[in-house]
Amino acid sequence: MCITLTSLNLSLIGDRIGENGAKYLGEGIANCVTLTSLNISLNGNGIGENGAKYLGEGIAKCVTLTSLNLNLWSNSIDENGAKYLGEGIEKCVTLTSLNLELS
């Protein structure tokens, strides 16, 4: 568990991590409960709807986030995937800055 980590910047653009990779990232993020700043760039990884769900679940555990930047272009995240991300973000009641790119 990363009990003192407050800022995480992760860029895995085009690394083809897929749904399973997104699951592991979501699980890891969920353990970083002291994060205040989270920046993730996963463009072109094919994480899909379920990958977005896993990320949303992880983000939901980061209740101290004040800044969230998600770049998830070209991942086949459909309507349900966006819903799952939104549900996770909704739990971050201390957010003051949000940038979400799904195009």
The H-and-E topology, N to C, reads as: EHEHEHE
CATH class: Alpha Beta
Strand-residue proportion: 15-25%
The count of domains is 1
Put simply, the count of helices is 3
Largest sheet: 4 strands, parallel
Distance between the termini: 32 Å
Count the E strands. Answer: 4
Spatial strand arrangement across the major sheet: 1-2-3-4
Descriptive terms for the model:
Leucine-rich repeat, LRR (right-handed beta-alpha superhelix), 103 residues, 4 strands, alpha/beta, 4-stranded parallel beta sheet
Summarize the structure.
With 103 residues, the chain is α/β, with parallel strands linked by helices. The protein has helices at 18-30, 48-60, 79-90, and strands spanning 7-11, 37-41, 67-71, 97-101. Helix 2 links the parallel strand 2 (37-41) and strand 3.
Which SSEs are present, and which pair or pack?
Blueprint: E1 7-11, H1 18-30, E2 37-41, H2 48-60, E3 67-71, H3 79-90, E4 97-101
Parallel strand pairs: 1-2, 2-3, 3-4
Structural summary, described in words:
The structure is a single chain. The protein is of the alpha/beta class and 103 residues long. The protein has one domain (7-101): Alpha-Beta Horseshoe (Leucine-rich repeat, LRR (right-handed beta-alpha superhelix)). 37% of the residues lie in helices and 19% in strands. It has three helices and four strands. It has helices at residues 18-30, 48-60, 79-90, and strands at 7-11, 37-41, 67-71, 97-101. The chain has a four-stranded parallel β-sheet, with no helix packed on it. Helix 3 (79-90) links the parallel strand 3 (67-71) and strand 4 (97-101). Helix 1 packs parallel to helix 2 (48-60) and helix 2 (48-60) runs parallel beside helix 3. The longest helix has 13 residues, at 18-30. It is globular, with a radius of gyration of 12 Å. The mean pLDDT is 96.
